[in-house]
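A quick aside before the break. I want you to see a complete sequence-to-structure record at least once, exactly as it would be stored in a machine-readable document. Don't worry about memorizing anything.
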Amino acid sequence: MSTYMYTTSIPVFKQLLNSLSVILTKAEAYATEKKINPTVLLEARLYPDMFPLSRQVQIAADFAKSVSARLAGVEVPAYDDNEQSFAELQTRISKTLSFIESLTPSQFEGSETREIVLRPGTPKEKKMVGHTYLSNYGLPQFLFHVTTAYAILRHNGLEVGKGDFMGAY
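That is the input. The structure line, written in tokens, reads:
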């Protein structure tokens, strides 16, 4: 099962973070071509009560690194949420990819039954085993934020499609 936990998480995170990076590159070029201030796209939302594009990218990277770290039994790297440009978001994605690529399948040994505690010591504390954490919480959260980032850009006129979202696999 440990190989399963690794192969169900790390390759998915890598594939979609890489595709998100390509989409952000296209978005930056689109902003330049259309003479759109990049901040307009970075602050774009699908609805007023939703996070903007920049925050969607930050959260997607956060889920990729935190889920991977918890399953591997290592400390979750801390990032400041201060990205304000496409270049800074690309750096965050690159940093996340470097971190998750440093993890090995052997670190995931036994992670399917490892207890994962979210928000420990708070009223929102939640405990679950690794397999449930990955399949019912971590991956859906990650996919939601990557999809929302894609949808924000598509909604704002960026010509991307399913192939762009899926990336190379």
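Two observations worth writing down. Residues 2-33 form the longest helix (32 residues). The helical segments are 2-33, 38-42, 53-72, 86-101, 130-155, 162-166. We'll return to this after the break.
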